[in-house]
Specification:
Distance between the termini: 37 Å
Number of domains: 2
Helix content: 25-40%
Strand content: 15-25%
Mean pLDDT: 92
Low-confidence stretches: none
Strand order of the largest sheet: 9-8-10-13-14-15-17-16
Number of helices: 16
Structural class: alpha/beta
Largest sheet: 8 strands, mixed
Shape: globular
Length: about 450
């Protein structure tokens, strides 16, 4: 079996060993969280001389461990394993979000204010915070719901939890195990994306069937069950969102589209509820719009990008393979994977066309890439085949009004060059393979 070693997240896990904090690996289901923890990291522990009797593994999505979804049962199980032992133990809990809360019997409900009702329950946060006090225990968990993200981790684990976000395979990881030329690998990644089992499956029909099934039987089923929503509504909104990746939108606009598709009334509030559910499941990520000159965020509209382009294509039965939009989505995911905060840039200026000065309007910079006080402006332009298209892409960069680095990523395998305006150009393939100096 071919193994992709996920070097970066594995090294992060190793660097965090015995740091007194709970390590929480988050990401979309089936992106390799369990493999990272129970295979790659476990292999590292074995190489360090750690025995299997020192590794406690609990997979809450498996029938064998269903009883452990009760946090009290899980707690007792772990304590019985480590109590009285003079050894270092490692606790792996897979799909921690499946743990449910239990009503506490030692609390008088009448004495608890309405805003503190959560105190009436024992949750996995409570038992993990307690287990964290055992010096002989190093704790690692995985979660497939974005409610496990940093802000919640910091609050519920009292600043003693740390998130490691895992994504589907990047193009570089995909290319590293392929035996294809770069251009052929790009064409394949553009269609099938980076979900691990899809990458390892060599038969195109089997790949497509797997991705379509994964979307329906795992992600849609999870959302319908968790949120108690109508499957047909979920399907319709997913189709609309998948068809419009990288386009500015908002709940109101999506509601109007859905109303025309469904011929039924849909409210902005309902659409927002479903969008939140898609984000919680890591299916889509929202990029906010940023006024580059005014240095302020707009509440609306926003852009949504698919966590994996293969899943996006599967959602549409592989009918809409539009390289322009898919390239933009892949670039966004790559920038997030490299640890940057990414916004959609907006610059307001007047443009002259055929000698006529047009009124001021907003123009777009695809990505404002942030790291601390530093920024890079990036345009995703699959093709700049003529001067009009070229000017359309670079004018917002030139009008940004500052000296931050400016980059245009184009289709293909061209090496980087810089023009007389200080704008750099590079092909998407070398960019994704990091054949470029430090971005920031």
């Amino acid at each position: 079996m071919t193994i992709i070693h996920r070097k970066q997240p594995l090294e992060r896990l190793i660097s965090m060993m015995h740091n007194g904090r709970i390590k929480i690996i988050t990401g979309i289901r089936r992106c390799g969280k369990s493999f990272l923890l129970s295979r790659l990291f476990k292999d590292h522990l074995h190489q360090q001389g750690v025995g299997d009797d020192q590794i406690i593994e609990i997979a809450l999505d498996k029938k064998q461990y269903e009883a452990m979804r009760n946090p009290n049962t899980l707690y007792q199980y772990v304590v019985e394993k480590i109590e009285g032992q003079d050894k270092q133990f490692y606790l792996f809990i897979d799909e921690i979000q499946l743990s449910y809360k239990i009503k506490r019997l030692d609390v008088d409900e009448s004495q608890v204010p309405e805003e503190d009702r959560e105190l009436l329950y024992t949750t996995f946060y409570d038992i993990l915070n307690d287990l964290m006090t055992w010096r002989s225990l190093d704790i690692y968990v995985t979660g497939s719901n974005s409610k496990m993200l940093s802000k919640d981790v910091a609050t519920n684990f009292r600043d003693r939890g740390i998130e490691i976000r895992l994504h589907p395979f990047s193009f570089a990881e995909f290319y590293s195990i392929s035996d294809m030329e770069k251009a052929d690998a790009w064409e394949e990644y553009l269609v099938y994306g980076g979900m691990p089992l899809a990458v390892l499956e060599k038969n195109p029909r089997e790949r497509e069937a797997y991705l379509i099934s994964l979307f329906e039987r795992v992600y849609v089923a999870d959302i319908v069950e968790r949120y108690g929503v109508a499957e047909s509504y979920v399907d319709d909104l997913l189709d609309v969102l998948a068809s419009n990746i990288g386009s500015l939108t908002n709940p109101s606009k999506l509601a109007k589209t859905l109303n025309s598709v469904r011929r039924a009334s849909t409210t902005d509030k309902t659409v927002k509820k479903y969008l939140d559910a898609f984000e919680d499941a890591f299916l889509f990520t929202k990029a906010r719009r940023y006024d580059v000159k005014g240095k302020a965020y707009f509440d609306s509209p926003v852009k949504y990008y698919a966590e994996d382009v293969g899943l996006r294509n599967a959602r549409l039965n592989f009918r809409q393979i539009e390289e322009t939009h898919l390239m933009e989505n892949i670039l966004y995911n790559e920038l997030v994977l490299r640890g940057f905060a990414v916004d959609v840039g907006s610059v307001r200026f007047a443009k002259t066309v055929d000698g006529k000065l047009l009124p001021e309007r907003w123009h777009e910079i695809d990505f404002v890439v942030n790291s601390g006080s530093q920024k890079v402006y990036i345009q995703s332009a699959f093709s700049i085949h003529d001067e009009d298209k070229h000017q359309q892409e670079i004018l917002p960069l030139l009008k940004s009004g500052d000296s931050f680095r400016k980059l245009v990523v184009i289709g293909g395998n061209k090496k980087m060059h810089t023009d007389e305006n200080g704008i750099s150009y590079i092909g998407v393939i070398p960019f994704l393979l990091e054949e470029i100096d430090n971005l920031l």
